[in-house]
Input
Amino acid sequence: MRAPKGTFASSLHSGLPQGTVRKQVVIIGNGPSGIALSHMLSGNWPYYNGQPHPTDEELTARLANEPPGLSIVEQDLSFLSQGLEGRSNNVVSLLFDCLNLPCADLGLDSDPLLHWQYHPDKYVDHVVLGKGPPGGSWQAMDGNVLTISLSRWMELPGMDYRSFGGGGPPTCRNSRASVASMAKYYSEYVKLKRLQENFRCGTVVTDVKPLANDQWLVTGVEHAGDEGALDMPFHYVTSHLVLATGNYDRPNKLKVPGDSEPYVIYSLLELERMVKQNKLSEHSDPVLVVGAGLSAADAIIACRFHGLPVLHAFRRSSGDPGFVFRQLPENMYPEYHKVHQMMTDGGNSYKKYKSLPEHKIIEIMPDYKGLPICQCAKMDMKVAGKI
Output
């Protein structure tokens, strides 16, 4: 399939920037959501295959009563979505999950209730903009980390993760995958589904502006691949703008004085980079990890893997029943339960780890030869360590 290149808008009469290209749809973000949408806009439409839903007889009845031969996208989605419940507040998303991955949340390995047909005449002219290769933030994460979700939960339409062969047990669909294998899966999906010409990677959107007649002007730059070459500006005008950017590169901050200093990092990838550059080692001062979520746990796991001493500050008490770790099955997430055990133990049984429960960072001050001193709310104490 060769995607249309788009049409140039008349800048002379419309007042648009020179070289502006018209697209029916502009998608900002080339992660899984942007990829799946491009797959459908490229003319791949889902159809109900007639199989009953494993647990929802009412949904099966609604699907069976729809006119035969119509794609799901041509049917009344609000009617089909009635009564559906799940982890999303979007009922259409719940409907798609029920059809594409029926009962996945219950641990069942059920086949999809959809089959896909390609209709070249249904192609919608679109472009997908992303800062890196297809896969979005998955391409920027530490590839050695295992995914939280099961691999099949992150499958895209029409391409089984098991048949992809990018990593993980090929016969175990309900298993976790490495971030690296999922990043490769998403990148290969774009190639195998022949979506490449819809994607413009290496781009950064700098401005989105509303125009008359429900139009949008999207402006940005495309980074030059060759050293010394100039970045190229681009402009798109569209009546349908989709934001599929996610929040990976917008981490939570402490919002205290000093939290934007260069020695405060918010990325596991940056932590790994510091280790490779010998800026952190087993002989370093302790790394102070702040928080009690899964990202903090990933940082602790990485620190211990490299033999780094760790101070771990979090606001809750060590026995708080609301920790996210309690919601994860221990047989599937043993590494996170180990971190929870360390937090509860306080560090008495684990070398180079010390937990600081019921602590809140109120200020980060450069001191001790450039190392930050973190002033904590509990006992008004100061904790020295790298962050």
The first helix runs from residue 11 to 14. The mean pLDDT is 84. The two ends are 49 Å apart (CA to CA).
